[in-house]
Each structure stands twice: as C-alpha cells, then as structure tokens.
Amino acid sequence: MNPEADISEDPAAERLAQAVRAAEQALIEFEIAVETFRVEVENFSRLHHQRLGPMYARLDELEALIAEAVAARSGSAEDVRRARDARALVQPLPGVEELLGGWMDSEGLFPEATAMLTGQSVQPPKRVRPSDEVRRAYRELVRKAHPDLAADEADRQRREEFLVRVNAAYAQGDEASLGALAAEWAAGPVPGQRRASRSEELYARLEWLAERKDMLSAVAAELEASAIGAMIKMAPDDPDGLLTEIADGLVAQIAEREARLASLVG
User: Fold this and answer.
1) Distance of alpha carbon 245 from alpha carbon 253, whole angstroms
2) Of 11, 14, 87, 173, which is most buried, counting CB atoms within 10 Å of its CB?
C-alpha cells in the first residue's frame, strides 16, 4: 500500500501534509536568517578583536603607567595599591604569545594597531560579511538541500553532511566552492533505495519543527543580545564604518593619556 496514496485520498491528512510543508519552508528561511547573522557576528567579532583589541590593551597599559607614575610621586599606600591593581590588569596570560601565533609584537600590539598609532597605512581588513553573490548562492543551496526536506533517514543524513560543507564555504565567503557544491547537488545522490514519508509521521514532524523553531529563536535572541550583535544592529549597512568611528575615539583617548603620562614623568 502506498503511504502517499493514503495521504492524497484523505483530505485531513492532505491538509496536515500541507501544514508540514509550509512549516518546513518557514523553518528553512528562519534557519538561513539565523545562520547568516551568526556568521556576521563571528566575522565582526574577529575583526573587532583584531582592530580594536590592541588599542584597548594600549589604553590599559597607559593607565597602569600613569598609576605607577602617580604612586612614585606621592608614595601613598593607596596610590601604590591602585598602581598594582592597574598593572595586574595588563599582565600577559601564560602562553598568550603561543595562543596568538606570534601576531603581537614585543609591546603587545598587533601590526594593524601599530600602523594606526603611527599613522601608517593599514592593510584592508577582511570583509565583515560574505558578498551578496555568496549570500544568494548559500540561500539557494540551503533551500534545496535542507534536511527537513528529506524523504527518509538516509536522505536526511546525506543532506546534513552536505550542509556542513555548505556552511563552511559560506563562512569563508567562498563563492567558487559554493558553485561547485551547487553543481554536486544538481547531479543528485548515488542511486539507492528511498522510502516515502508515512502519513502517521506528519504529526511528529510538526512537533519537531516547532521545537527546532524554539531553539533557533533562543539562538537568535542570544546573538542579538550580545555586545557584537548589538553593534552590528547599530550599523547593519556599514559595520566597517562603525569600527573606524570607535577606533578614532580610541586613538584620541590614547593620545590624551600619553600626554598625561609625559607630564608625569617628564
């Protein structure tokens, strides 16, 4: 007996099947949106750390030097304690140079930060987000290969493994790899047996889709509530510009603290 025939001959089951298909498509679109934002947050966080982290570190170092200079002048126990606390904030963590792979110089600055502080040209940072072409290719592949569209467990596993590769290419903004993956998907799976979905599985599928939607909603809320997520939402069309604006403010703070330090030790 053909399960699909059972569904087509049962109006109630057919309506349920339509509801499942609609829920699957809605979930796929939501997953695409969440994954896109997750990649944006991850890339922006990396760029934020690369460009601004060293400047914050420089500010902490200057605060420690200023506190130490004040303590050396006054000799008061309170000033000495403050200087000790300030210095503790900038002590390097054990193994930090190994962790950062030699990116930092002897003064704890990244090359990009050194360039900004000395007025030299800065190497253009990596794009914060994948290009529009990459985003379109990614969405199209996810819509076609999403596991929720699987006909059986074997097909679901194939789709899940395929999307792992799709997500990796998208995170790198690799348009060529996405094109190759699209061609691979279009060629189809290795021939094998497939089982059609049974009508009695539809209720379970709807329940799973609802649970998946709740989980993704929690992930999206967490991303949006994060510091980096909030920054992206402040300037969704020009996140690089926001970083530049923050960097300019940090440069001004660094200059002010360097002047104060010079007045204390000069």
Assistant:
1) 13
2) 173
Neighbours of 159 (CB within 10 A): 22
- C-alpha to C-alpha distance for 98 and 265, rounded to whole angstroms: 34
- Full DSSP string of 148-210: GG-SSHHHHHHHHHHHHHHHHHHHTT-HHHHHHHHHHHHH-PPP----PPPGGGHHHHHHHHH
Cβ 37 vs Cβ 223: under 8 Å: yes
Q: How far is CA 137 from CA 25, 89, 133, 181, in A?
A: 17, 45, 6, 10
Spatial separation of the C-alpha atoms in residues 7 and 9, rounded to whole Å: 5
pLDDT tier, 92 (very low <50, low <70, confident <90, very high otherwise): low
The confidence score (pLDDT) of residue 207 equals 78
- From the CB of residue 13, how many other CB atoms can be counted at a distance below 10 Å? 16
Would you mind telling me the total number of residues written for the chain in this entry? 266
Task: Measure the CA dihedral 41/46/52/56, to 10°.
Answer: 100
pLDDT of 5 over the 90 cut: no
Residues 209-264 have pLDDT tens digits of 888 888 888 888 998 888 888 888 888 788 888 888 889 999 999 999 999 999 98
Mean pLDDT of 110-135: 57
Closest Cα partner for 55 from 212, 255, 264?
255
Q: Which region holds residue 121: left if phi is over 0, alpha if psi is between -120 and 50, else beta?
A: beta
Tokens of 236: 């969704």
* Residue (of 72, 18, 80) closest to 265 by Cα position: 72
